[in-house]
From TrEMBL:
Belongs to the short-chain dehydrogenases/reductases (SDR) family. It is an enzyme of class 1 (oxidoreductase). This is Dehydrogenase/reductase SDR family member 11. It comes from the Eukaryota. Catalyzes the conversion of the 17-keto group of estrone, 4- and 5-androstenes and 5-alpha-androstanes into their 17-beta-hydroxyl metabolites and the conversion of the 3-keto group of 3-, 3,17- and 3,20- diketosteroids into their 3-hydroxyl metabolites. Exhibits reductive 3-beta-hydroxysteroid dehydrogenase activity toward 5-beta-androstanes, 5-beta-pregnanes, 4-pregnenes and bile acids. May also reduce endogenous and exogenous alpha-dicarbonyl compounds and xenobiotic alicyclic ketones. GO terms for molecular function: 3-beta-hydroxysteroid 3-dehydrogenase (NADP+) activity; estradiol 17-beta-dehydrogenase [NAD(P)+] activity. SUPFAM superfamilies: NAD(P)-binding Rossmann-fold domains. Pathway: Steroid biosynthesis; estrogen biosynthesis. It catalyses: a 3beta-hydroxysteroid + NADP(+) = a 3-oxosteroid + NADPH + H(+); 17beta-estradiol + NADP(+) = estrone + NADPH + H(+); 17beta-estradiol + NAD(+) = estrone + NADH + H(+). Keywords: Oxidoreductase.
């Protein structure tokens, strides 16, 4: 598998939401594999720190921090144009940024719903479109678009504070399959995959239950959870599949997770 990752050396990957959690772990893993990784987030301090860590660890790639608010299309477009100017374009796009707000269907605030749609659905779709455009204009026929989905994109959890979030992740499931079909109709060998983790120990629950850190901690203490690195391993597994192999959806959860 390591040999299969060789073809990505020196090539450019965009990882959204790269400052913490899964995004940071994926960015690190790809830099380790020799890729030039543009890591974006609203706050780049942590990405800058991670870039320095990768450099001092002697990884053969490089992490390039980029400040971008994914809820703002203008910022996404100017990021893609900066990548084009500085690094020619994107060969791999990892749509990782995502968030959950505790806004039930019967009582939730519209603004929380809109933010989830803006980041989890629209930003993912805009980045996908722009990454494809970047690949097309350089005749890149072996690119890869990976959406970090969720088990919540495959079943609705019986918890009101996650229902709208699940709806956005169901959208990601449909968007990934629609993308696969469109890429095939376009006669490209660019691949589309989604990775659907169950409970991963990151800052996610703390942001989700921001008014109740004890509830968040309880989520992670209830079982041996997946680690962000487990998802990063799944990303390198997907990227290292032979070019004729299309991996549609990797569903992964802790062995102890009930549903």
């Amino acid at each position: 598998r390591a040999r299969q990752m060789d073809r990505w050396k020196g090539r450019v990957a965009l990882v959204t939401g790269a400052s913490v959690g899964i995004g940071a772990a994926v960015a690190r893993a790809l830099v380790q594999q020799g890729m030039r990784v543009v890591g974006c987030a609203r706050n780049v301090d942590k990405i800058e720190k991670l870039a320095a860590e990768c450099q001092s660890a002697g990884y053969s790639g490089a992490l390039i921090p980029y400040k971008c608010d994914l809820a703002n299309e203008e910022e996404i477009l100017s990021m893609f144009s900066a990548i084009r100017t500085m690094h020619k374009g994107v060969d791999v796009c990892i749509n990782n940024a995502g968030l959950a707000h505790n806004e039930p269907l019967l009582s939730g605030k519209t603004e929380g719903w809109k933010n989830m749609i803006d980041v989890n659905v629209l930003a993912l779709s805009i980045c996908t479109r722009e990454a494809y455009k970047s690949m097309k204009e350089r005749n890149v026929d072996d690119g890869h678009i990976i959406n970090i989905n969720s088990m919540g994109g495959h079943r609705v959890v019986p918890s009101a504070d996650e229902h709208f979030y699940c709806a956005t992740k169901y959208a990601v499931t449909a968007l990934t399959e629609g993308l696969r079909q469109e890429l095939r109709e376009a006669n490209t060998h660019i691949r589309a995959t989604c990775i659907s983790p169950g409970i991963v120990e990151t800052e996610f629950a703390f942001r989700h239950h921001n008014s109740d850190p004890e509830k968040a901690a309880a989520v992670y203490e209830s079982m041996k959870c997946l680690k962000a690195e487990d998802i990063a391993s799944a990303v390198t597994f997907v990227l290292s599949a032979p070019p004729h192999v299309q991996i549609g959806d990797v569903q992964m959860r802790p062995v102890e997770q009930a549903s």
